[in-house]
Amino acid sequence: MDDLQGVLRGQKISYFSMEIGLSSEIPTYAGGLGVLAGDTIRSAADLNIPLVAVTLVSNKGYFRQILDSSGNQIEHTEEWNPAHFMTHLTAEVSVKIQNREVKIRAWLYNCKSLTGGCVPIIFLDTDVEGNDPEDRKITDFLYGGDQRYRLKQEIVLGIGGVRMLDELGFKIRKYHMNEGHSSLLGLELLRCNGIDPMKVKELCIFTTHTPVEAGHDKFDYGLVEDLIRDKNCVDVLRRFGGAERFNTSLFALNLSNYINGVTKRHSLISSELFPGYKIQAITNGVHSYTWTSPYFRKLYDRYLPGWANEPELLVRIDGIPDTEIWEAHWNAKKALIDEVNKRTGVGMDYESLTIGFARRMTAYKRATLVLSDLEMLKKINRRGKIQLIFAGKSHPNDGAGKQLIRDIFKNIEILRKEIKIVFLENYDMDLAAKMVSGVDLWLNTPTRPYEASGTSGMKAAHNGVVNFSVLDGWWIEGWIEGVTGWAIGPQPEEKLSEEEAKAAELSDLYNKLYYIIVPMYYDRKDEWVKLINNSIGMIAYYFNSHRMMRRYVTHAYL
């Protein structure tokens, strides 16, 4: 408990997230949601925001991805030992699941800032002696198992998390739910506040990250009644979480005074999805220091002292000589290409225009869109050499996502003699940092409007990498055509069918590569360097988690 003494003073904002990405060595994240949570916590520490975070320990991680020669994804457990990174706390609480008392212990990780700030993170763990063997596994796998397993995890995170904070002596004045996975904390708060929803609403903040109905967790009440065998509690869930199925997001919406989406576009879509709720917009950002390569960090330190805690200083990028900016980019690119060649032996070179695509492999992200017309891709390559680097994991139960990886592998073979393409396995935070800083062009091709935000392009911009993206999520706000990068396809307000939109996107994708991007990269390097400057000075200065957290403080936490 000594490790807690310095962080217990005063009231805290509690930040609940099913996943938090801190480092590749702590595999408690699956993708963008967890990495964003990590950036949120890092910025809170930098800015001395009185935050405490709560998550699950995920003892066996998400999974380690192995790919065979045909691109078949094989999942391996990624076991790790929390004791190597965290302090075991003596506090213990319990929750009821099927009328069994499930004991929960906690690990403490202090996220410390170079500025002296600190955010404690409480990792909940049910691998406790005395628990039923089945219950000991509840906090093993992030997003593992079936609906039953997921609901058990959400009981531990929401209800158990509130109880653990209370047991540890934290004084909490706001509960911030990062997505609906933790919304059962509202049930515990109702229990503690005489089932008074107005009191609970004063305490709760809900950030939704999902722009489509199917993306919100829903559980059949038969399952809910089996796991939560308290009729009064189930009645409360029906009252605030939906009569037919328990909708975690609806439950959070009904018990929060402040609700926000993660971009302006996403907040509008969420308002249409959940009419009658006032859904604000706080656009996501990334932690500038974490996602800037060592080469650009050194440059910014020299010319823009203090930039790490005041990323808005990046607006002064024009004060740095272009030759030094290009050298920093070249060094980051060299580091990535060396890593690719070491892993694959494919023999990529430093000179070719290098295009990166790395994110969760799922159908709406459309990783294979750029490979739709191989003859056109060959034509572009004849105009100026291109090489492509892919990476990303597919959820173990996502058959369509796994097929995308196999399709990329097939195309790698077809194009082997003409275009160098690789798919790097086991995408993690370390590989992400190399990719977002080392490619020349960052490609993003989601099906509209399924990208709530997306943050990889923001990371790329911090390293002067140019964005080329469908107009969805954050890019609608960051895009100035030909100035900060390029759009792919129609404007957001254009009403086209999915097929019409795809046809327009493919035409735009290939035409811009052939007529604008490739010629500029090879023949007009000064214009390309200007795009690098604009990516930093017009995007990175604003799309960072310091700006995001200041918005949460002034709009949600007060």
Automatic annotation (TrEMBL):
Similarity annotation: Belongs to the glycogen phosphorylase family.
The protein's enzyme class: transferase
Keyword terms of this UniProt record: Glycosyltransferase, Transferase
Sample GO molecular function, one term: glycogen phosphorylase activity
One BP annotation, GO: carbohydrate metabolic process
Name of the protein this chain belongs to: Glycogen phosphorylase
Coiled coil, from the record: none
InterPro entries per UniProt: Agluc_phsphrylas, Glyco_trans_35, Glycogen/Maltodextrin_Phosph
Keyword Cytoplasm attributed: no
EC number: 2.4.1.1
One Pfam family recorded for the sequence: Phosphorylase
